[in-house]
Specification:
The structure is a single chain. By secondary structure, this protein is an all-alpha fold. It has a single domain, classed as Orthogonal Bundle (MetI-like fold), CATH 1.10.3720. It is built from eight helices and no strands. The radius of gyration is 21 Å and the shape is elongated.
Length: about 140
């Protein structure tokens, strides 16, 4: 279930836009210094694009964490159900109870909030400051 979620058109577009913001002169100077393509990619392009890759990781995590339809289609064993499907199974068609589904919804928000505050803010601020170079 994770591999199809990692390859999406938004991610490809975002990484392309982030990597196109890296100045071409850095690539050209590295090629003149004798860098190969793999070294150029791993030592120049990826470290300068880490803020966009971090945001893409946070967005993909949030999308996978909150996904309902894909696990509902793929999974057929109740032991393998994800949290959104488990929350849906707490509800009853004939009797409305709010305690357990609301507690589960709150607990499902906690990892996303932690990821956003710890990782997401770091990369978000770095991405904002990347364009603040005076010159």
């Amino acid at each position: 279930m994770l591999i199809p979620a990692l390859m999406n058109s938004f991610g490809i577009f975002l990484v392309r836009q982030v990597m196109s913001q890296v100045p071409r002169e850095l690539y050209e100077s590295a090629l003149i210094d004798g860098c190969g393509e793999l070294y150029l990619f791993s030592r120049i392009a990826v470290p300068l694009s880490v803020s966009g890759l971090g945001i893409l990781g946070v967005l993909n995590f949030m999308g996978c964490w909150n996904d309902f339809m894909t696990p509902l289609i793929y999974l057929n064993q109740e032991a393998m159900y994800t949290l959104p499907i488990g929350l849906m199974r707490l509800q009853n068609f004939y009797k409305v109870t709010y305690g357990a589904p609301l507690a589960g919804a709150f607990l499902s928000c906690v990892p996303v909030i932690i990821i956003l505050t710890v990782v997401g803010q770091k990369y978000f601020i770095r991405g904002l400051m990347a364009g603040a170079v005076k010159g």
